[in-house]
Amino acid sequence: MAAIKFLSVDDEEQIEFLMKQFFRRKIRSGEYEFFFARNGVEGLKVLHEHPDIAIILCDINMPEMDGLEMLAKVNEMHNPALRVIMVSAFGDLENIRRAMNDGAFDFATKPIDMDDLERTIEKAIRQIDFVRKSQKEHRKLEALEQDLAAANQIQKFILPRVFPPFPEDSDKIDICASMEAARDIGGDFYDFFRINDDHIGFVIGDVCGKGISAALFMAVSRSIMRSVAMQYDSAAECMTKANQMLAASSVEYMFVTIFYAIFNIKTGLVTYCNGGHNPPYLLHADGMVEELPVSENVLVGAFKGIQFKEATLQLDHGDTLVLYTDGVTEAMSPAREVFGPKRLIHTLSRLTGKSCQEMIELVRADMTEFVGDEEQSDDITMLVVKRK
């Protein structure tokens, strides 16, 4: 353990002898280390040379620069882990009071009662220890915040952000997506990718939990889904393989809900597999909103050896498939009401003819109006696919 460093500033030479004599055991054991100066000017020089000094014992009445002037200079350093104990004659109460008002930690009167001074020093050391621990924790939090900010940028980078994503087929399909994390980093993800000339895959997922572990599991889940999608023509086979890989590597009972679909851009046929995710909505060209059947499959990554089932739907020209995570329907108002499926359906029913980006923006606008100033409690992710 490093020694507590003291600076004694006093123009009386016997004070140096007194300090060294009284605290000799702690000085010899390396607990205390003392530096001495004869006035404020010398004291500030020593303090500059040894910025880790923790306690200053400062006489008030000194030549060149007195204790009150030095206290003012020390205050300008804004060191919360530095304590100043003023020393003066018993009758000098006015200056003692001024020093206390100006930020001195405590005071001692001459002739110094060394036992009382020792108790004052011990009290100061306890406060300094607390401040230093707080500063250490603060530095850790700052470092964590910097790491989270970097992770936030990385997470945004790995999710597709260029729209339209398939300009060569922009006359056949419109796709847009967004993810807003409730914290610095989120557990939701979306993705879309070309499988071959006629087929495009798209996926949305919601990892259980929040924070760093959820964000890492999210990144792994997204990578696995994209990887298996390039190996299997069947949505069910993709999900079965992804589940096998995630369940084998899952820790702390983590799992993810995933909706994965393969879209034939020529015929409009969508083959999909829902692994415990919210049923998407199908917005027909005539404005009718239809909810897809509730998934019969289990959560992804929760159990090994599961065979997933797939289903199909037909996207006619002008139809739109709206995928979302529960951060949309569970958004909370100040009155503690949730946005809910009914409000989402009502909003979607008014969006016929809109582009996918406009749909996302208008849903978010309705949500924002609904929640007001209420803090976002969950990641909000949407993926919208429209057959033109």
Explain briefly what this protein structure is.
The chain is 39% helix and 24% strand. The protein is α/β, with parallel strands linked by helices.
Main-sheet strand order equals 2-1-3-4-5
Structural class: alpha/beta
Over all CA atoms, what is the radius of gyration? 34 Å
What percentage of residues falls in helices of 4 or more residues?
A: 25-40%
Count of helix runs = 11
Distance between the terminal alpha carbons, to the nearest Å? Answer: 71 Å
Mean pLDDT: 92
Profile the largest sheet. Answer: 5 strands, parallel
Note the run of SSEs as H and E. EHHEHEHEHEHEEEHHEEEEEEHHHE
Low-confidence stretches are none
Q: What is the number of beta strands?
A: 15
Strand content: 15-25%
How would the global form be characterised?
elongated
Would you kindly provide a written description of the structure presented here, covering whatever features stand out?
By secondary structure, this protein is α/β, with parallel strands linked by helices. The chain is built from eleven helices and 15 strands. The strands form three sheets. A five-stranded parallel beta sheet has the order 2-1-3-4-5, with helices on both faces. The chain has a five-stranded antiparallel beta sheet with strand order 6-15-14-11-12. A hairpin with a 4-residue loop joins strand 9 (256-264) and strand 10. Helix 3 packs parallel to helix 4 (67-75) and helix 7 (211-229) runs antiparallel to helix 8 (235-249). The longest helix is centred in the middle third of the chain and has 45 residues, at 114-158. It is elongated, with a radius of gyration of 34 Å. 36% of the residues are buried. The model has no long low-confidence stretch (mean pLDDT 92).
